[in-house]
Amino acid sequence: ESPFTDLPQNDVELTPDKVKDEKEGGPTFHCDLCDAELVYTIAQAFLPGLSTACVDNTTGDVFKSPGSVAAEIRKEMVEYLTQRSETFVAESVVLDAGLEVQASDHPYDIIAFLIDEFATTKRNLFSRVSEWLLSDKREDKIDDFSQEMEINGFWSIDKREAIVQTLLKNVDLKNEFHCDMKFYSADELAQHVPTCKYRSMTCQNEGCYAKYSISQMENHDSVCPYKMIPCEQKCLASLMRRDMDRHCITVCPMKLVNCPFYSVGCKSAIPQCKIEEHRSLDFHSHLLYILQGIHKEASVEVLRKRVEQLLQKYSSKLANIRDLRSLTYKVKDLDAKLGPLKVCATNEVDVATKTAGKLQILEASDTNKVTEKGAETRVVGFEAKPQSLEVTPTNKDSIEAVKAEIKDSEAKLQSLGVKSLNKVSKEGLKTKATDVEAKPQSLENTITNKDSGVAPGTTVNHHEARPPSLEVTPKK
């Protein structure tokens, strides 16, 4: 059997006594209007508070259920909140500090604290222990009983709001959430109500049933999830605010996307609806990116001329192709039909310069090797001298390698459609080769001179120890 079967099916009228006027003969007609949204929010906290008090009061009791004590505890709760709200006003005026709720003077925080305080007073001894041992089960029972009361209409929202209005006037010390106007006659009050800034209204947006004071209309309208607003990305659609995020990242035509040619080099981010326009305006660039993938070593200037050649001869065949894969295959095919890529004179000079640079690197490398050999000769002495003479064959091999590389470069240029290197480049290369050939001889002379300068010292130091039979004749 459900523990909630004893829940009363009918609601009862529970309205706390209104605060009496402080001065006799003063205005007796009060405007009862309050901030409707805040009143509703506080009223929603009543059922969970009542449910907590009922569950904790009957935990471990086999003769009572939360539903059997709900009506009695509800009455006690209303009386407690009314008395404490009035006491709170008095204590706040007399005392400067000491109340826990003084950390916040917002009416919701104050009343929520009073509700929790009441629920704590209704705990029995067993619930004080089981709160720790069975906390998960306790929370489940509280939630279930709160939903049961909501479904059965045990405490209607209208009745709860009527109680909240009285409590709100007691704790709203700054008069920010209720009307404090007072009148001498009912007619004066009736004339005031239609113009009161706290009169309630229901949201006019379709699907929204929120209630709020007329003074909060702009604030609610700025956050209402059902408000129809234009697309944030400036498309022509208008939609509910709650659907905006999903629209902007899914179906919005102005959603930013990567160019279809992103993988080959186009890094533009464009609105989804302007992809075709981008393809048309940047068609030359897209062809250039594709050619750069085909001819990786060619310069941009050369490839731009190649793009012009393709468009002059095959623009009709390329214009209607939209996807990257098809256009890439077509460009490769048409590029092959145009023949080998022709390199301009500037590229010839660049190739010659690169080759000359390699020659300089080889010269520097040979010089370093010879210098290292000379250093070893000075350290070891005259016995190491024959080894230093073996540098020459190494340098000859390097010269032969450079000459072979020059021939290979000329062959590559001819295969690309270049008739021949310009004269300046050729003469420069020949001069470099001649210098390299002459370099080893000068290096040999230098080594010989240095060795002869070191040898006397070596001879003096080791003459007695070195027999004549150890003299070595250099290899020819």
From TrEMBL:
Keywords of the record: Metal-binding, Zinc, Zinc-finger
Annotated organism of origin: Gossypium raimondii
Database matches in InterPro entries: Znf_RING/FYVE/PHD, Znf_TRAF
Ranges for domain TRAF-type: 220-276
Compositionally skewed regions (Basic and acidic residues) per UniProt: 427-438
Domain of life: Eukaryota
Spans annotated as Disordered: 427-476
Listed transmembrane segments: none
Protein name (database record): TRAF-type domain-containing protein
Record field: compositional bias (Polar residues): 442-451
Pfam families cross-referenced by the UniProt entry: zf-TRAF
UniProt zinc finger (TRAF-type) residues: 220-276
Lineage: Eukaryota, Viridiplantae, Streptophyta, Embryophyta, Tracheophyta
GO molecular function: zinc ion binding
